[in-house]
């Protein structure tokens, strides 16, 4: 038996490269998520006879994956102890930019998609610029301002009207299959792997963690904090634009009020995925499982026609569970 | 191991809460297996499932329509599924449509949040054999089999202009307070109002502004206040939406403008009774939303049974609302329910109890 002090010291020292004992593997947050995920699947199967078949499970991903692209950069931002609540408005503005490029300026659809991605990235870059330029302002306030600003610009451009008439092939993004697999799912897997490697296998990812632990020491250790933040916020804008492409494709048109309150869903998924709001902690695989938990939970409850207000209660309870449970573990430790 | 066990217990607890939640709240669907009409069943011997999607939750007008729809479906021996997203957006309705396709419902009736954005989702539904129709707020002709229209839009536009003209003596500035700028139904009615205003007899009327209250109470209130400030000579307001007219009624009452600024439009009798009685709104119009939902329910049933196909000239008996005929509507077809009904001081006391 080692003493308490020694134990916590050893624990802290080893946290960087965790020993993979059976106990540790099982106690990881991701396993709990897997457990919840299986629970959701079992519950849905018991509640609805239509849930458990390949077509249903496959088509459900087309419903809930659109906003999931933003969860990854949001995880990066939250690991850096910050937040971006303007992503929903960025989705709206970039999709409006795409529709305007196509319908007003007569650009080909391919170019309009590029415009969409550029607008999204610029929105993110602007957020990053403000946050790094004025570090005394909190990210919540800055992105709250740009949230209203971006949505407002979208309203001014389209004047509360819808804009669509995109070419037929554009519908493929939201509705198409490749050998029976939804296109959106393939893109999702690709982007998830890319972000996973970026966070866990590159020096850039280690810088993100370092900033989350302590941005002042990171700065004095030679990490370019400003540059890292700029890149991460730009990525968030870019992924919001990817969401915009899929959403506009699904609806065949866009309007300034789309993606309302998406930022809340995105933050909820990241938090449920074990990304600590206190910064410095989290693994991307957890967010992937969380996306599927929330997605299939909503879809399954929709299949038995739960009123949408009740659905909000369920998601809220799940999130509360996610943020409270780790605290209970900490309580027992102390 | 203790911690692990505790996590297990916690998650089991949570899941059981979830399960409890779901069992307590299936009130959205109404099974009706014990009625005598067991003949209207699908191949598996289960009752036919008819779904209704409204614009958003918490709208009294939508709840009345759902009530009528459910009534019609029950009479046919089917099962009614009533859904509405928490936000009045097209993407939220698409999600619900996907879920209904997976449930293999037999028909989907909806009040669309956007005329065009739902097209891919509704096409997918129709391709998988589901009958799709819109009511209240139409979706475009390619995304539906037919549309159940509350009343002739031309008549709705015309009578409101007639009313306001009579109220203010045929002379002065008027304004329109509408719902959202994307609402298919309101936009059509306003178009007919503008056409009506071109007639010689309305030369004295000047339409100064079309304001959008978005069917939100607070925005409608501030839009009304803005109208009164911007146009001090304003003589009348037409609000062709139940949320808008109630908000305008409140503002005019608070500012003591009864007799100075006239108000008319489309309103729910239960919400408007006090403003009709205090003279702010001399009279207004509406149809019975319960009847609209009821007729839409019967149309859905007849489409699924194959009695009608939604082609021009189809006729069917829509329960207590009588015989209905499918007529032309632009590129598509529609079913019209008749003239809007007038509510004034004489009959409001009786109708405010009904809806």
UniProtKB/TrEMBL annotation, chain A:
The keyword Cell inner membrane applies. The chain crosses the membrane at residues 31-52, 87-105, 111-130, 137-157, 177-199, 230-249, 261-278, 285-304, 310-328. It is found in: Cell membrane. It is a multi-pass membrane protein. Its main location: membrane. Keywords: Cell inner membrane, Cell membrane, Membrane, Transmembrane, Transmembrane helix, Transport. The keyword Methyltransferase does not apply. PANTHER family: ABC TRANSPORTER PERMEASE PROTEIN YPHD-RELATED-RELATED, AUTOINDUCER 2 IMPORT SYSTEM PERMEASE PROTEIN LSRD. This is Autoinducer 2 import system permease protein LsrD.
Automatic annotation (TrEMBL), chain B:
InterPro entries: Bact_Solute-Bind_Prot2, Peripla_BP_I, RhaS, SBP_2_dom. Its main location: other. Pfam families: Peripla_BP_4. Gene3D superfamilies: 3.40.50.2300. The keyword Signal applies. It is found in: Cell envelope. Keywords: Signal. Residues 51-307 form the Periplasmic binding protein domain. It comes from the Bacteria. Coiled coil: none annotated. Residues 1-19 form the signal peptide. PANTHER family: ABC-TYPE SUGAR TRANSPORT SYSTEM PERIPLASMIC COMPONENT-LIKE PROTEIN, D-XYLOSE-BINDING PERIPLASMIC PROTEIN. This is ABC transporter substrate-binding protein. It comes from Lysinibacillus contaminans.
């Amino acid at each position: 038996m080692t003493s308490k002090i020694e134990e916590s010291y050893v624990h802290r020292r080893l946290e960087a490269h965790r020993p993979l004992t059976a106990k540790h593997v099982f106690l990881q947050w991701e396993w709990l998520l897997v457990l919840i995920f299986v629970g959701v699947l079992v519950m849905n199967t018991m509640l609805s006879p239509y849930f458990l078949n390949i077509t249903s499970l496959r088509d459900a991903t087309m419903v809930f994956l659109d906003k999931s692209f933003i969860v990854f950069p949001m995880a990066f931002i939250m690991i850096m102890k910050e937040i971006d609540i303007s992503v929903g408005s960025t989705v709206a503005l970039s999709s409006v930019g795409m529709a305007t490029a196509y319908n007003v300026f007569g650009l080909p659809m391919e170019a309009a998609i590029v415009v969409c991605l550029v607008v999204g990235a610029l929105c993110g870059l602007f957020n990053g610029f403000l946050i790094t330029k004025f570090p005394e302002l909190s990210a919540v306030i800055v992105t709250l301002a740009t949230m209203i600003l971006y949505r407002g610009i979208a309203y001014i451009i389209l004047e509360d009207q819808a804009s669509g008439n995109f070419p037929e092939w554009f519908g493929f993004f939201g509705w198409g299959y490749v050998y029976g697999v939804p296109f959106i799912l393939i893109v999702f897997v690709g982007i998830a792997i890319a972000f996973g490697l970026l966070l866990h296998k590159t020096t850039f990812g280690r810088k993100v963690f370092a900033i989350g632990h302590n941005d002042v020491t990171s700065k004095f250790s030679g990490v370019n904090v400003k540059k890292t933040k700029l890149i991460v916020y730009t990525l968030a804008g870019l992924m919001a634009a990817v969401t915009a492409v899929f959403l506009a494709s699904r609806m065949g048109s866009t309007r300034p009020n789309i993606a309302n309150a998406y930022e809340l869903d995105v933050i909820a998924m990241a938090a449920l995925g074990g990304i600590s709001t206190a910064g410095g902690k989290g693994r991307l695989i957890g967010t992937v499982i969380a996306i599927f938990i929330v997605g299939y939970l909503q879809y399954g409850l929709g299949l038995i026609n739960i009123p949408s207000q009740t659905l909000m209660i369920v998601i809220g309870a799940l999130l509360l569970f996610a943020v409270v449970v780790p605290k209970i573990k900490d309580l027992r430790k102390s | 191991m203790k911690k692990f066990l505790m996590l297990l217990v916690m998650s089991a607890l949570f899941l059981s809460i979830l399960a409890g939640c779901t069992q307590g709240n299936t009130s959205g669907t109404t099974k009706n297996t014990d009625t005598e009409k067991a003949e209207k069943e699908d191949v598996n011997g289960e009752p036919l499932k008819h779904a209704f999607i409204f614009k958003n939750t918490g709208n009294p007008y939508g709840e009345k329509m759902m009530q009528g729809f459910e009534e019609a479906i029950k009479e046919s021996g089917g099962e009614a599924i009533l859904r509405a997203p928490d936000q009045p957006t097209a993407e939220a309705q698409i999600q619900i449509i996907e879920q209904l396709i997976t449930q293999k419902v037999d028909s989907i009736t909806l009040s669309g949040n956007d005329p065009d954005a739902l097209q891919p989702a509704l096409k997918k539904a129709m391709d998988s054999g589901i009958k799709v129709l819109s009511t209240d707020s139409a979706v475009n002709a390619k995304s539906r089999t037919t549309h159940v229209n509350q009343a002739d839009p031309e008549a709705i536009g015309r009578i409101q202009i007639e009313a306001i003209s009579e109220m203010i003596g045929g002379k002065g500035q008027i304004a329109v307070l509408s719902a959202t700028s994307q609402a298919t139904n309101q936009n059509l009615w306003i178009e007919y109002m503008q056409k009506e205003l071109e007639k010689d007899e309305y030369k004295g009327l000047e339409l100064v502004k079309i304001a959008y209250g978005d069917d939100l109470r607070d925005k409608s209130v501030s839009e009304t206040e803005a109208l009164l400030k911007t146009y001090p000579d304003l003589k009348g307001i037409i609000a062709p939406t139940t949320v808008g007219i109630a908000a305008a009624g409140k503002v005019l009452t608070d500012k003591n403008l009864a007799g100075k600024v006239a108000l008319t439009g489309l309103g729910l009798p239960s919400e408007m009774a006090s403003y009709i009685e205090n003279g702010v709104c001399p009279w207004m119009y509406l149809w019975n939303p319960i009847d609209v939902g009821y007729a839409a329910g019967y149309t859905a049933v007849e489409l699924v049974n194959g009695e009608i196909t939604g082609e021009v000239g189809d006729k069917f008996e829509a329960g207590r609302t009588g015989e209905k005929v499918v007529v032309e509507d632009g590129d598509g077809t529609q079913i019209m329910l008749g003239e809007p009904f007038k509510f004034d001081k004489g009959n409001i006391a009786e109708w405010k109890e009904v809806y």
